[in-house]
Amino acid sequence: MRATNNLPDGPKMSSFLRRMKFIFQPLEYVEDFAKVYGDNFTIWSRNDSPIIYFSHPQALQQIFNADSSHLYAGSGNRGLQFLLGSNSLILLDSDRHQRQRQLLTPPFHGDRMRTYGEIIREITQQVSNGWKKGKPFNIRASMQEITLRVILRVVFGLDEGPHLEKIRQLLSSLLDSIGSPLLSAGLFFRFLQKDFGAWSPWGRVLRLRQQIDEMIYALIRERRVQSPQNRQDILSLMMSARDEDGQPMTDEELRDELMTLMVAGHETTASALTWAFYWIDYLPEVRDKLLRELDTLGDNPDPSTVAKLPYLNALCQETLRIYPIAMNAFPRVVRLPIEIQGYTLPEGTIIIPNIYLAHHREETYPQSKQFKPERFLERQFSPYEYLPFGGGNRRCIGLAFAQYEMKLVLATILSRFQVSLVNRRPVRPVRRGLTVATPAGMQMVAMPLEKRVNTPVLV
Fold it and tell me: Domain with 168 in it: what CATH number?
């Protein structure tokens, strides 16, 4: 018998049909429910436990600021353990989560991050130089190549070569497999996670992961016998980090956190960049404003100067607002009864902070379905109104790096090429694994830019 007192109302539909809609129509899944039930609604799991979606800023503030003893987030992500490992920051709670977060934060400090600027620009130029003038190419594949090569260089500090190329190919194949429609469903239906040998879909995923693990552990062993002095790569910084008791991370902890950084550190940014190129070409007035701003930079600008451009920053923020790559922040599981926006939630309730709906509240973002970077020049939004990287103590530790990389990639390419859609029909996000992204086959063409004359920036 369902105890429904003092919980938000919600839809009554079969678990199977609801999951199918969640997988294949991710936007409609939350939009249709929100039209009927508003900011907060309850759905029921197969064992009749409540799953409550919240998107009102007041509710999000209460969730993100709640005492960690009341809400656990790591236990809500167990479905990722097969890929990231049990020591991943994403799967930890309480003291273990706090310890790992402290150990992982230094590599993303501003001073460290600036040393990565030239790597980002160099790799972006290398990849875009491979585009053939006027010939269609898959924009997402190019963005994924850039962001994967960047994260591997930043994480491992490896120069270009067979070792780096091998792990790049393996990781790209693994994530493409998980992002396919069949295995996207497999992330939510456990009965599809069956290993029927190396040629079965799930069997291939497990063997790719095993090969990546072998390479990561080999790199950890090599690095342990090398001097870490003057190394700026994230692996070296993680290996030299110590917790409050003076203890370093174990090899297993290093592997799981490296895998987390590689998966989360390039897949999401590649999707965001692909959306940015879509909007820049789809809305010529946006492209013109951005190009006028980029024209003020001159030749070979300092990366930190690029990162401070106001319209470029607003464009990146609006890209992450209108179609956030992760539609939800990490789920929270209620450990002790808690009140959220007047609702008393019992133990075992799963809380879903919904980023997409929060980003489309008309009260916060008038004409929310329109792409308008100017809204971020006109006012500031609270972390409970704008939250593309989640919130509270689970907010993505790489958010500054991701934003920095987005700006440098866009500025580097758009200063040299006009990148145009082959088909200018409007597109909507589709599921790609645990995220939403542009349709996989979106094609663009690149034409070298002629030298432009500086004109005033009008924003």
Answer: 1.10.630.10
- Does the pTM of the predicted model rise above 0.85? yes
Residue range of the domain that includes 179 = 15-448
Phi and psi at 426, nearest 5°, equal -65, 145
Q: Give 182-189 contacts, CB < 8 A, sequence gap 24+.
A: 183/433, 184/23, 184/431, 184/432, 184/433, 185/23, 187/79, 187/433, 187/434, 188/19, 188/22, 188/23, 188/79, 189/19
Query: Does 39 reside within a domain?
Result: yes
Cα 300 to Cα 128, 153, 181, 409: the distances in Å are 16, 22, 42, 13
> How far is residue 353's CA from residue 327's CA, in Å, rounded to a whole number?
9
How many domains is the chain partitioned into structurally?
Answer: 1
Q: What is the pLDDT of residues 194-206, one digit of tens each?
A: 666 666 777 888 8
Residue 394 lies in a domain: yes
- Encode pLDDT of 123-164 as tens digits: 999 999 999 999 999 999 999 999 999 988 888 887 777 878
Residue 5 covered by a domain:
no
Exposed, middle or buried: residue 417 (CB in 10 Å: 0-12, 13-18, 19+)? Answer: middle
Cα separation, 63 vs 52, in Å, equals 12
Structural domain contains residue 437: yes
Cβ–Cβ < 8 Å for 55, 39: yes
